[in-house]
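User: I've been going back and forth on whether these two constructs are worth ordering. Before I decide, could you fold them both?

Assistant: Sure. I'll take them in the order you sent them. The first construct and its structure tokens:
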Amino acid sequence: MTVPDWSALFAEMETAKRRLAVSDRDGLWRHEAPRPPAAPERIAEITTVTHCSLDPEYADFLLHADGWPAILQDIDLFGTADFGTAVYAEAEELVRVIEDEVEIERGTNASRLIPIGASRADIDILVMSRSEEPNRLAPVIWLAGGEIERYRTFSDFFRGMITENLGEAGSLA
């Protein structure tokens, strides 16, 4: 596994978010910075909520930013403090509802869909397909009533959010 260069990816995201903020003349979206890095012991505590191992790229991301509010439009990427909260419980419930309505491919040996982000005002939710295999990279799936997008890894997802923010900036310009 190649470790993502989070400094470079954060710089790209911050550039995209600045472009979006300039283009968002009507104030449609929140424009927020990433949270400060999480302590390793806080990251380890997430497994007590999810009951499965944490994706290694997501865990590494949390060491650089403990979540990112409004990573795209009004979708918040969860940090350690979000797991176990009412927001997390609502996201889990939404996943259950979606799974009752739509077949979602989880991948080989995957047992659960773990919410890692959610919209504050809409039905968008970000989930990772997790298994009992530690250190296995998991796909990130963007759901909104059904599957919107699937990213092979967390770092691919993050790159996708950069692209989405740049696209949104272009559409608002």
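The second construct, handled the same way:
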Amino acid sequence: VAFLDCQMGSHIIGEGWNNWRDWEREKTVTYVEYNSSGPGAKRQKRVSWSRCLTPEEASKYQLENIFPENNSWYI
């Protein structure tokens, strides 16, 4: 799960993520964010298994990289 350039409202909990009471899920999922803003974007309380992307890492999250084939549906 990646959140890039998102305005996060106060309804976003400080932890940012929830494993739905199953610690095993933390072993197989990635939660990242980049350039978040707003009251829910405060990273001080984020879970230890989430992280912020660098600008270089964030630049790779483009639709053409995620959906390289048959991408006319989102243009």
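Notes on the second construct follow. Residues 2-74 form one domain. The mean pLDDT is 89.
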